[in-house]
C-alpha cells in the first residue's frame, strides 16, 4: 500500500506510526515544500511527482490550507483521509459538492470515536432517559509541544485556522456521535486568558436536544489536564474519564482499559483501511458529516 501525506507535523507522525503498526508493507511519501526536509530515519520519501498510484492521500497540513489541498488532490481521484478540523471556515460548500460529484471517498479523522470508554458509554446509554450532559476538555497549550514556542504553532494562531473552538472539535464530534445532532446550538467564544495568543482560547457550546441539553466547555489554559463526559440519567450518573479511559456508574467503576488516547490512532487507521478502503463504506464521518459538525461550531 502506498500513502501520500500532505503536511508532516506532529499529527502526521502519529498517523505514520499507526500505519507502521498495522503493516510493514506500506510505502509512505510526503509532499512538502521544496525547501523542507524529511526525517530519513522514518523511511519517508519526499516527492513531487509519481503520486498517481497512491492508495490514499492523508492531509494533515494546517487547517487553513485544507481547502486548497483538497481541491489540488481531487484531480487524483483518490480516497482522502483528512485530519480534523475539516476547514477553519464555512466558505467551501462548492468544494464539497465537487468532491461528492467526483464520488471521492473521504474520512475526517476524529479519533476519540475509537476510544474504548466512548464506545462503551455509547452502548450503555441506549434506552436511557437522559436529563443532562456535561463535557469538559481543558489542557495547557504551552505543554502540547515541549521545546517549541507555543505562540508559533497553528493552534495559537487565528490566521492559521487555530482556536480551541475547532482545534478541540473532538468534543463536539463525539457528542454528535453519542447523542445525534442537536435541534439548536448556542455558543460563547473568548480570548481573555494570559496565554497571549490570537486564537480563541475558551469555548462554551450548549447543544439542545428534545429531552436534555449538552454543555461543552473547552480551553487551552488548564495546567492540570481534564477530559471528561458526565451523563445524568433518570436512574443515575455516568462519569467518563477520557484521559484514564474508564467509566463509572453512580461512583463505581464499571469499565477500565489500559489503552490511552494515543492508541486510538491505530484503531482509527485500521477502521479506515478495512471499512472505507476495502469495504467501501462511505457513511462514517465523511466530508458531509464533518462539514455539518463544523457548522455547529461556527455558524451564527
Tell me what you see in this structure.
This protein is α/β, with parallel strands linked by helices. It is built from eight helices and 14 strands. The chain has helices at 10-22, 66-73, 93-101, 116-124, 164-167, 170-179, 264-278, 287-298; strands at 2-6, 27-31, 45-46, 56-59, 80-83, 106-109, 130-140, 184-190, 202-208, 213-219, 221-233, 236-241, 246-249, 252-256. The strands form two sheets. An eight-stranded mixed β-sheet has the order 8-9-10-7-11-12-13-14, with helices on one face. The chain has a six-stranded parallel β-sheet with strand order 3-2-1-4-5-6, sandwiched between helices. The radius of gyration is 19 Å and the shape is globular.
Q: Given the helix and strand composition, which structural class is it?
A: alpha/beta
With helices defined by DSSP (H or I, 4 residues minimum), what is the helix count? 8
Q: Topology as H/E string?
A: EHEEEHEHEHEHHEEEEEEEHH
Low-pLDDT stretches? 35-50
- What Rg do the Cα atoms give? 19 Å
Q: Approximately what portion of the residues adopt beta-strand conformation?
A: 25-35%
Largest sheet strand order:
8-9-10-7-11-12-13-14
For the largest beta-sheet, the strand count, sense and barrel status come to:
8 strands, mixed
**Overall mean pLDDT:** 91
Helical residue percent band: 25-40%
The shape, in one word, is: globular
Gap from first CA to last CA: 42 Å
Number of strands: 14
Amino acid at each position: 500500500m502506498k500513502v501520500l501525506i500532505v503536511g508532516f507535523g506532529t499529527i502526521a507522525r502519529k498517523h505514520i506510526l499507526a500505519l507502521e503498526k498495522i503493516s510493514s508493507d506500506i510505502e509512505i511519501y510526503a509532499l512538502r515544500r521544496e525547501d523542507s526536509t524529511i526525517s530519513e530515519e522514518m523511511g519517508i520519501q519526499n516527492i513531487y511527482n509519481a503520486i498517481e498510484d497512491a492508495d490514499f492521500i492523508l492531509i494533515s497540513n494546517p487547517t487553513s490550507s485544507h481547502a486548497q489541498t483538497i481541491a489540488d488532490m481531487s484531480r487524483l481521484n483518490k480516497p482522502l483521509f483528512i485530519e480534523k478540523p475539516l476547514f477553519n471556515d464555512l466558505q467551501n460548500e462548492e468544494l464539497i459538492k465537487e468532491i461528492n460529484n467526483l464520488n471521492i471517498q473521504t474520512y475526517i479523522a476524529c479519533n476519540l470515536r475509537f476510544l474504548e470508554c466512548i464506545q462503551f458509554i455509547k452502548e450503555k446509554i441506549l434506552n436511557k432517559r437522559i436529563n443532562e450532559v456535561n463535557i469538559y476538555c481543558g489542557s495547557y497549550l504551552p505543554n502540547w509541544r515541549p521545546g517549541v514556542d507555543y505562540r508559533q504553532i497553528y493552534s495559537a494562531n487565528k490566521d492559521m485556522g487555530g482556536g480551541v473552538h475547532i482545534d478541540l472539535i473532538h468534543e463536539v464530534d463525539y457528542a454528535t456521535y453519542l447523542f445525534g445532532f442537536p435541534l439548536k446550538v448556542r455558543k460563547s467564544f473568548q480570548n481573555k486568558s494570559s496565554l497571549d495568543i490570537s486564537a480563541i482560547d475558551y469555548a462554551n457550546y450548549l447543544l439542545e436536544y428534545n429531552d436534555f441539553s449538552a454543555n461543552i466547555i473547552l480551553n487551552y489554559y488548564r495546567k492540570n489536564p481534564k477530559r471528561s463526559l458526565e451523563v445524568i440519567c433518570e436512574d443515575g450518573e455516568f462519569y467518563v474519564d477520557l484521559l484514564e479511559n474508564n467509566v463509572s456508574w453512580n461512583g463505581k467503576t464499571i469499565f477500565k482499559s489500559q489503552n490511552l488516547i494515543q492508541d486510538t490512532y491505530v484503531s482509527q487507521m485500521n477502521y479506515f483501511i478495512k471499512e472505507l478502503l476495502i469495504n467501501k463504506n462511505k457513511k462514517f464521518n465523511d466530508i458531509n458529516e464533518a462539514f455539518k459538525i463544523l457548522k455547529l461550531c461556527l455558524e451564527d
